[in-house]
């Protein structure tokens, strides 16, 4: 697979799953634009090389997204691939969630994907083709306690994925990637909220049929495959990459 002369924009591309996407698309010869609030993205871009550009950008803010997409086009001549990956996790039920917290999760996880698509798709149309990949979650299908805004935002991403796929076909394809538990800074921070992080880690391992959690690189490789020509018959779908998480009836799998 080669993305020579193509430009991929990766939101939340400084670390975690987005960091892996940045590295993998770069390895596959794409120009890579890392949009992130974390200045660590600058180090990654410098490490990758001349085809990588870091832009500090809060992707939940339209003016910043518009300016970043314009800079990407000015630097590399266009946009071909958008990975809407930036996201945050918060833990609360509906009755515990403040309006501000609800809006924050929706804005970072969902509105950002709308805004980035809004400003990247016209650039893809100028090129005659493009791919949008929304990083959702298995929590678009199954849920757990205390994740009301998060699971809602991830479920809504599937609707956004279908809308983009329908509205811009056949030139532009759009898919959602739905990871199970992936070993990233976000996950490690979540473990630290527990008095026994090691026990929570083991619970996560045990939930997956493959008896481990996933790596950011596994998700990044899937994104690269879906963005490539070999995946040209995929559009509008949500693809789970989850080690079999949540497909068993509770208690049905004996050790
Ligand atoms: N780690 C998991 O187990 C898991 C599972 C399913 C889905 N996901 C999803 O995958 C995506 C990446 O998660 P991760 O685990 O790599 O998280 P992470 O926290 O390790 O990395 C997320 C990146 O997004 C950036 N970011 C956050 N808010 C931003 C904003 N407003 N503007 C720009 N950048 C912003 C962060 O600075 C960070 O670099 C998220 O959408 C997350 O919901 C993660």
What topology does this entry show?
Elements: E1 7-11, H1 16-27, E2 31-36, H2 40-48, E3 52-56, H3 62-76, E4 81-84, H4 99-127, E5 130-135, H5 148-168, E6 172-179, H6 185-192, H7 197-207, H8 216-227, E7 238-241
Parallel strand pairs: 1-2, 1-4, 2-3, 4-5, 5-6, 6-7
Helix pairs in contact: 1-8, 3-4, 4-5
The structure holds nicotinamide-adenine-dinucleotide (NAD).
Q: How many individual domains? A: 1
Q: Which spans of ≥5 residues are poorly predicted at pLDDT below 50? A: none
Going across the biggest sheet, name each strand in turn: 3-2-1-4-5-6-7
Shape: globular
**Sheet/helix structural class:** alpha/beta
Rg estimate, integer Å: 18 Å
Let me know the average pLDDT. Answer: 97
List the ions, cofactors and other small molecules found in this model: nicotinamide-adenine-dinucleotide
User: Under the CATH scheme, which architecture would be assigned?
Assistant: 3-Layer(aba) Sandwich
Q: Can you tell me the CATH superfamily?
A: NAD(P)-binding Rossmann-like Domain
| Percent in helix | 40-55%
CATH fold descriptor = Rossmann fold
Question: What is the total tally of β strands?
Answer: 7
How much of the residues is beta strand, in percent?
A: 5-15%
Number of helices: 8
Question: What are the secondary-structure elements, in order, as H or E?
Answer: EHEHEHEHEHEHHHE
What is the distance, rounded to the nearest whole angstrom, between the alpha carbons of the first and last residues? 39 Å
CATH class: Alpha Beta
Give a quick account of the main beta sheet: strands, pairing sense, barrel closure.
7 strands, parallel
